[in-house]
Amino acid sequence: MKKHIYIILTYVAFATMWTCSNNEDRVGESQIDTTTPILNELDIYLRENFVAPYNIEVQYKWNINETDIDRYLHPPYESSVEPVANALIKAWIEPYTTVGGPDFIKKIAPRQFTFAGSFNYNPNSPTITLGVAEAGAKITLFNIDYLDFSDINSIKEPLKTVQHEYGHILNQNYPIDIMYGQINPADYTAQWFNRTDAQARELGYITAYGSSQESEDFVEMVSEMLTNSKESFDAIVNGISSATARSYIRQKEAFVVKYYLDNFGIDIYELQALIEAATQQLVN
Amino acid sequence: MKNIRNTSYWLISLMFITLFSCNNDDDNLLFSESPAERISQSTSELVNLLVEQQNGYKGVYFTKNDEFGGFTFYMKFNADGTVTMTSDFDSETDLFTSSYDVRLGTATELVFTTRNHIQKVSDPEYGGLRGAGFKGTSVFQFFKNENGTLTFKDVRNSSTASFILEPTGFSDFETESVAKAKESLAQRDNLLPTAQTSVFQVLRFENENGIQNYNLNYDSLRLYATPRTQNDTGEVSELNFGVAFSDTGLTINPAITFEGETYEDFVFDYPTNSYVSTVNGTTATILFSNTPVFLTDDVNGLGKTGHQVFGSRLSFGVNSLTSPGFDALISTVNQNIKGISANANAYWSYSGIEFYVVPNATTGYVTLYVMVYSSGPTSTATYYAGYNFRQTIENNKVYYTYVGAANGNGSYFLNAVTPLLQFFLSPDGMYFTDQGSFSSSLFSYSNLSSTFTSASQPNLRLYGLWFN
């Protein structure tokens, strides 16, 4: 009987080998279209300055799925793209690289920037959205067609958005101290837009948006510190009437300084100085 | 022994399963090409159609035909991924080049990937339509090709948007496209009242059954018309369509059907200053008329809650319901004010009116205040020049008769503002119409708004809001 079993098993083995051997269509070249798309000079600039060194895509060509489909937005002029991209290199990537090392931005960075030319109006609200960060992977910048590179305040607008959103991305990797939210939690409000920045500062928040919630408060502190010189930032804080509010903001500043030092070994005041110098040089 | 037999049965079963499990009995290929090749074919079909027109396409784009009119574009697609275009969206008609792409999304899509004329329809900064603009898009789904005419749709406004490209037939795209865009823009002006023409426009159908008139009710900001007419029983019926202009006239969308005939394309007739669509011997005509087709009874609300103090100020911004004729009148008033004295010439100007239309309990008068703003020399001030009228409402019109100046400023500025007073003192009365909530190039308020139109001089119409 054993003999029968061996015969059958041998048969099964051969049958298994041959029945599925109909392999005239062998694996050939990939069927996925890997043809290089048409690249203009701007595409090549972005590949050389963002994709190759940092694996960051700057997407300026319109894809309706990359922004909120319910908003009425449009792509930027091609001429608007390079100045903003250059500002990101000079006033964001290079300063962080100087203080954090050549791999800092390579390791922690959004993998994609999306540029939109138009303002992003929020429905049923008197506000516009300047930028959006999504899952630490992507930052969308709006209204880049309306930036004036002869005005430093206009240049600082997208940079502040990036510093703000990058602050969120850093927080997603290294959480902030839970005690930060205990400094002055009483006046956080979803109706932050009913406050002016000046009113928010008198309550101990660096901006009105910073008074919306703890995480926004932290990154607003970061972005205000990194888009103002130390002198300007001190002038803002020292201009607040309320001593209590000044104290709150100085406590928050200390948290931010410690956060950068403990987690990244970065002296944020050195970073602040580098960004300020770079931003000044961007003014036409 | 029994176990061995069972094992054999199982092995034989396995043998048959093995034999048939890999039976290759379906050798019919559904597609001869790979998915990537098929995607490439569907996109390259559209790319080829776009690029093969050496002198480009004329495109008419209605972004949302239940809310807005449309615009005409002339665009030339190049093989290097660029597109050059102009449009009649505004007076900036210079050719501009940007990028486009053809992709496979849920359908084959034409995407205008960087900003050009076509993005003006999705510009949320557009004055008066802030936040959403004309609700247009940069992404168009390819729908069909009929004899070289390409039809696209917008995935967002799928049932109300249409973008249709047809070959231009030009011999020189660069020069002819811009010229056509300018002619198209001029046609838009032909539909607007001038300083001399009546503000009343009528959509008139003429066929063997006779004539039917509609008040056109054209909104020049949205390029949208809501023609209304009233039958013998007082019932009001309404049509709705957006308007896009061409070098020879206009196109409406959706097309309108009246007594079995459908009207879509109108040609401008210069001698009669009207747009005419002729179908099977019948016509639809958009023309200027000295009187409206029918009068509403809105005027009966004058003096009641919500219609007590009317205001119109230059600082409120611009709405096309204030006619060019009225703007010219204000210009005259302004010159008169500045002519009063050297001081007036330097510092004074007309800034608006306030009209208190609740008759005074004692005198029965209503009072118009003309506001004159002084910017100096030492401080700013607004002078209110007051004038009393008697107000009578008859046959759905309001009539004003002059009583006299209501204050010293009124006497002082009387001669200067006389053209404005004469507007209200129209011998044939004034047409009064409610216009919904207030909107202008600068603001949108929930306040009710209305228009006063002179029946004697129907080129004069004033738009404003009610403070209470």
List keywords for this structure.
heterodimer; A: 284 residues; alpha/beta; Collagenase (Catalytic Domain); four-stranded mixed β-sheet; two-stranded antiparallel ribbon; 6 strands; 51% helix; globular; B: 468 residues; alpha+beta; nine-stranded antiparallel β-sheet; eight-stranded antiparallel beta barrel
Tell me which CATH architecture of the largest domain in chain A applies here.
3-Layer(aba) Sandwich
End-to-end Cα distance of chain A, whole Å, is: 94 Å
Quickly give the structural class of chain A: alpha/beta
Largest interface: A-B, 39 and 45 residues
Radius of gyration of chain A: 26 Å
Oligomer class: heterodimer
- The geometry of chain B reads as elongated
Main β-sheet of chain B, in a few words?
A: 9 strands, antiparallel
Helix tally of chain A equals 10
What is the share of helical residues of chain A?
40-55%
Task: List the total number of helices of chain B.
Answer: 6
Cα Rg of chain B: 32 Å
Describe the protein's architecture and organization.
The complex is a heterodimer of chains A (284) and B (468). Chain A has 284 residues and is α/β, with parallel strands linked by helices. Chain A has two domains: 37-148, 3-Layer(aba) Sandwich (Collagenase (Catalytic Domain)), CATH 3.40.390; 174-284, Collagenase (Catalytic Domain) (3-Layer(aba) Sandwich), CATH 3.40.390.70. Chain A has ten helices and six strands. Chain A has helices spanning 2-19, 41-54, 78-100, 104-107, 152-173, 197-202, 214-226, 230-238, 243-264, 268-282, and strands at residues 57-59, 112-115, 120-121, 128-129, 131-134, 138-141. Chain A has a four-stranded mixed sheet. In chain A, a hairpin with a 6-residue loop joins strand 3 and strand 4. In chain A, helix 5 (152-173) packs across helix 7 (214-226). Chain A starts with a helix and ends with a helix. The relative contact order of chain A is 0.10. Chain B is α+β, with helices and mostly antiparallel strands. Chain B has helices spanning 2-21, 35-52, 173-190, 324-338, 342-347, 408-424; strands at 57-62, 70-77, 82-87, 96-104, 108-112, 139-146, 149-153, 162-167, 200-207, 210-215, 218-219, 224-225, 228-230, 236-238, 241-245, 249-258, 261-269, 274-279, 282-289, 309-313, 348-356, 366-374, 381-394, 397-405, 430-439, 444-454, 461-466. In chain B, the strands form four sheets. In chain B, strands 10-9-19-18-17-16-15-12-11 form a nine-stranded antiparallel sheet. In chain B, strand 2 and strand 3 form a beta hairpin. In chain B, helix 4 (324-338) packs antiparallel against helix 6 (408-424). Chain B is elongated, with a radius of gyration of 32 Å. The mean pLDDT of chain B is 93.
